[in-house]
Amino acid sequence: MNTKLAPSVIGSGAPELNLSPNELRGIVEQALLGIAPDARVLAIIPDKTRDDNTDLLMPFAAETLMKRPVAQFDALVAQGTHVPMTDAEKRLKIGARDDGAVPGLSHIYDHRWDNPAELVTIGELSQSQVRELSGGLIDHAVPLTINRLLAPGVYDTVLIFGATVPHEVAGFAGGAKYFFPGVAGPELTHATHWLGALAGVENTIGRIETPTRRLIEAAADFIPAHVISLNSVVTRDDANRLRTHALFCGDFRFALRRAAKVSRHVHIKYTGRRYARVVALLDEHYDEMWVGGKASYRLGGIIEEGGELLIYAPHLHCISETHGTVIERYGYHPLERVRELVAESGELQANLCVAAHLAHVSYAGRRDADGRIVGRFSITLASGVDEATCHRVNLGYMDHRTFRLADYASDPDTLIVERAGRDLYMVAPTA
Predict the structure, then answer these.
(1) pLDDT tens by residue, 15-34
(2) In what order do the strands lie in the sheet with 72-77?
(3) Are 184 and 111 in contact (CB under 8 A)?
(4) pTM for the whole thing?
(5) Which of 117, 144, 231, 374 lies 20 to 30 Å from 404, alpha-carbon distance?
(6) What is the rounded CA–CA span in Å between residue 34 and residue 73?
């Protein structure tokens, strides 16, 4: 079915579907029909930490735009605060031909969130707006700085490519999140992450309507160009073959919500119980704890109080290339303690996205026998990160070379999760 689903949204999707390349091409062509000849088009694409089907959709979009033809077609990587991809990683992400090109695509730009010369202010969310949108969790105005390529008059149309999955900050990834914080400046990047932490990961992840979603969509209304959001829902089978369950394109609000309804069925697993131990075999896309923390975000809800999360990730070699120094200075703590640290530290006040990460990885708190707030469960890391660093950030350490999956396979109170961090695990559906 390839029908109009909501105002300005077209596409197809259901948990049981596996859309073919021809079906995907047809949806992309239909979604881009309204782009005028001689338009200047910017594609915003995910970085290497996201598993998606941009390598399929970008060539389809390029072919469609060449038939107009458009005056300009470029791409900007929504890397947030992550390190830039290599040229080879970029070519792989966009589905480039053997000669390294996508027909009609001129430039692929990196996003420098921390370089003021690369940013422009396009507006501001007032104090009263932020207070209302955040449900009172944040009470200050937020200037909207964003990559200068999104300034008025630079491009006529912006295409957002990305996969929709449960997300700890926004509820679900996709849509306006590719602007804020994907290609945003530090102000809203910090505000969105801290808001997600204040709202609580359990109250956010896997929910469509969240305070952060309201905030980023209000901010995205300031984007001066026409926006077409391409929201995919994808999974991988045991042979690592990509399956596209859905593709909804058009308005960034409606398209995201249609995709999220499908994602809830394919990316959320229900266990019916909690476990004393969860062994997370971390997905290969997460090579630092900044993104590898998804093992905690997406599995914490099924771990018993006082239990353990064991993350096996021999390919993970650092806490964060961008934020590692700050994270190691403070370590992972429950939100209650992180709020105290933020109140005491100007450094954390200036790096609220890091503060949010500290709380998110810890997941949630509980009181121990002495009345102290400690993590609801312990986290042990069996990775390329050394023992001293693990202890410095309040993680347990295991030499990954001593890890044996067979040691845990027969324990009824242990759940082993392969490719951990991809799917959200919950005891039972939420209302």
Answers:
(1) 999 999 999 999 999 999 99
(2) 3-6, 9-13, 242-250, 226-236, 157-163, 40-45, 72-77, 108-109
(3) no
(4) 0.89
(5) 374
(6) 15
